[in-house]
Amino acid sequence: MRRFRHGKVNFHWCDRCGTILLGDKCDICSSSGRRFKVSRPGDIRPATGRTIDLIVSLFEKYFGTSDFLRDRLIFLNKVAGEDRTDEVIFQGHVIATIRYDLRIRDFKLDLRLDGARLLAPIANKGLAIMDRESGHLKGKNFSGDLFNEVKGSFETEDPLIILVGNFICSGVARVDSADLHHSKRAIGIRDVGRGEISIAKKSSWTTFVNANKAYILTLESKGISDIRSYIGNHDLPLTISFSGGKDSLACYGLLSKASQKFSMIFIDTGLEFPETIHYVKDFSRKERKKLLIAAAGQAFWDNLDDFGPPAKDFRWCCKVCKLAPLTNLIEKQFPKGTITVEGNRAFESFSRSTIRFVERNPFVPNQTILNPIKEWRAIDVWAYIWLRGLDYNPLYDEDFERIGCYLCPSCLESEWRNTSLIHPDLHSEWDNYLKQWAEECGSDDRFVTYGFWRWKIIPPKMRRMAEEFRMSMPHIRSDTLELKWVKGVSPCLAGGHSAEGVLSVPHNREFGRV
Ligand code: SF4
Question: pLDDT tens for residues 245-268?
Answer without folding.
Answer: 999 999 999 999 999 999 999 999
